[in-house]
Amino acid sequence: MYEQLKQSVCEANLQLQKHQLIIFSWGNVSAIDRASGIIAIKPSGVSYDSLSPDKIVLLDLNGKVIEGSLNPSSDTPTHLELYRNFETIGGICHTHSAFATMWAQACREIPCFGTTHADYFYGPIPVTKPMTKAQIESDYELNTGKVIVKRFAKLDPLQIRAVLVANHGPFTWGKTASESVEAAVVLEQVAKMAFGTICINPRQKKISQVLLDKHYLRKHGKTAYYGQKRE
């Protein structure tokens, strides 16, 4: 019944390796079928070289395994918390890609310095507060999701489809599993460019609001005109 869901999640996970966002098994992608509340996610610790749709694990929003003999990703509680709170998203990606993770480890948001960033994210990439000792020692992965949700209390997750978990790494999302991976690819690129920008000019100011608005809204706003019209 959920073969297409498992296939799409498997393919999205393999895209992480193709785009060189992961090494070994350091990453995971999931997707949700909103009609049924069923989530498909990569199994924990499984090499991408051996990943196939039949190994993808299915579970419900409470974390109960519906199908699959392997353990789901250890980050599953984080994914579930995001799906429960960000009702407009359909796919989630987590990696430890180098440049995005550098910003996360530095506990710094990624400033929007230019139009490449503004074309995709409507403002800086937010970073969460460092997790407390209690949050780490009790329900760590669930609390990771909770700190992300708290950081987005005043943000639209579809306008900024990424977050940096302090001292940890990036999570990205979209309406589908493949869109969540696309966001991860773009995030790594803008993280790299922001790093280079600061190296060249440590005093560089963020993009103006008018230029941010122009570039983001011409692609994603109500009167967007970028690209071709769909029939």
Architecture overview:
This protein has a single domain, classed as L-fuculose-1-phosphate Aldolase (3-Layer(aba) Sandwich). Strand 1 and strand 2 form a beta hairpin. The protein is globular and about 50 Å long. It starts with a helix and ends in an 11-residue tail after the last helix. It has a seven-stranded antiparallel β-sheet with strand order 4-3-2-1-5-7-6, with helices on both faces. It is of the alpha+beta class and 231 residues long. It has eight helices and seven strands; from the N terminus they run H-E-E-E-E-H-E-H-H-H-H-E-E-H-H. The model has no long low-confidence stretch (mean pLDDT 96).
CATH superfamily: Class II aldolase/adducin N-terminal domain
Distance between the termini: 30 Å
- In sequence order, what are the helices and strands, one letter per element? HEEEEHEHHHHEEHH
* Binned strand content: 5-15%
Tally of DSSP helical segments? 8
